[in-house]
Amino acid sequence: MLYDPIQQAIGAVHAGRSGALHAILPKTITAMHQAFGTHAEDLYIVLGPSIGGCCYEINETIALECETKGYGLALRREDEKVFLDVNTILLEQLKGLGVENIEVVEHCTSCRSDEYFSYRADAQQTGRIAGVIILR
């Protein structure tokens, strides 16, 4: 969720692994700048609950893509497994744009599948999580 109190503009975007690797948040901020005159440093951003680096196991192909794009720091290797922390990618992107006001809801939806739906924890048959932002 993105809020620009100066221009009174808001945005909502899903930023999972693919979106993060394809810079969906920076692209959203660019679109907000073009549409509303938003400046990254004015934004307040909330990263909602998501699968955490503790649980998000990925394959070597995805790990290589992360490393190639400069996001190796978002990877954790344990035994023969690789785990990805998508929020690490998003935070790097946001900080690189000058966004300082960032709130992260650090709830892993897989670890806390009793509170949140999780595609991976629920064996791919799951509900959905909705985020809503309004401007008054």
Reading the helices and strands in chain order gives EEHHEEHEEHE
Instruction: Name the beta content range.
Output: 15-25%
Low-confidence stretches: none
- Total number of helices: 4
Query: If you average the pLDDT, what whole number results?
Result: 91
Shape: globular
> Which strand order does the major sheet show?
2-1-3-7
Tally the beta strands. Answer: 7
User: How would you characterize the largest beta sheet?
Assistant: 4 strands, mixed
Whole-number radius of gyration?
Answer: 16 Å
Approximate helicity band: 25-40%
Provide the structure class. alpha+beta
> How many angstroms does the end-to-end distance come to?
15 Å
Pfam families: Cu-oxidase_4
Protein name: Laccase domain-containing protein
Keywords: Hydrolase, Metal-binding, Transferase, Zinc
Family: Belongs to the purine nucleoside phosphorylase YfiH/LACC1 family.
